[in-house]
Amino acid sequence: xxxxxLSFGLCAAIAGMSMLSTASTAQSIRNHDxxxxxxxxxxxxxxxxxxxxxxxxxxxxxxxxxxxLKANRVTAAYSSNEGVDVNRLDATGGVIITKDDLxxxxxSAIYDLDSSLITLIGNVNLVQGNNRLTxxxxxxxxxxxxxxxxxxGTSGTTASGGRVTGTFSVPQRKN
Length: 175
Prior knowledge:
CATH superfamily: Lipopolysaccharide (LPS) transport protein A like domain
Structural class: mainly beta
Radius of gyration: 16 Å
Helix content: under 10%
InterPro entries: LPS_export_LptA, OstA-like_N
CATH topology: lipopolysaccharide transport protein A fold
Number of strands: 11
GO molecular function, one term: glycolipid transfer activity
Keywords: Signal
CATH architecture: Sandwich
Largest sheet: 11 strands, antiparallel
Pfam family, one: LptD_N
Number of domains: 1
CATH class: Mainly Beta
Organism: Sphingorhabdus wooponensis
């Protein structure tokens, strides 16, 4: 079964959240096809038809066009006008998002398929190659190919004191 049958286009937006402390442009996911089908697996699935959502739990994995989302629990909100169309995925518990050499981890994430945004919240770590960033909140805009990381999150400060921290690799130059 594919979530595109339920539809999926990894993105997230948290409306009304204020940008806290320092913001920094981060690495991004390039050339992602958010209209591609999404395959998923989980230990269990509960359909909450009256609430228009599906709850997946137990080592959830969702894969779309080379982008992988892993979490302990994922709730998929959908509309059922002409079939089932998933508009949003809320992931909690050990969230890991990978694509190519990019790896992002956090406490929770929201993938808003309609706006093509992925928002990671709480203890965010972003690694791409030798580059590393940490912060409280990361927004990945799949349409614009741009990511922004902030020092603070919705649940307070991070271990970095509410600041974005990181290391950028520098190519070796000949003298």
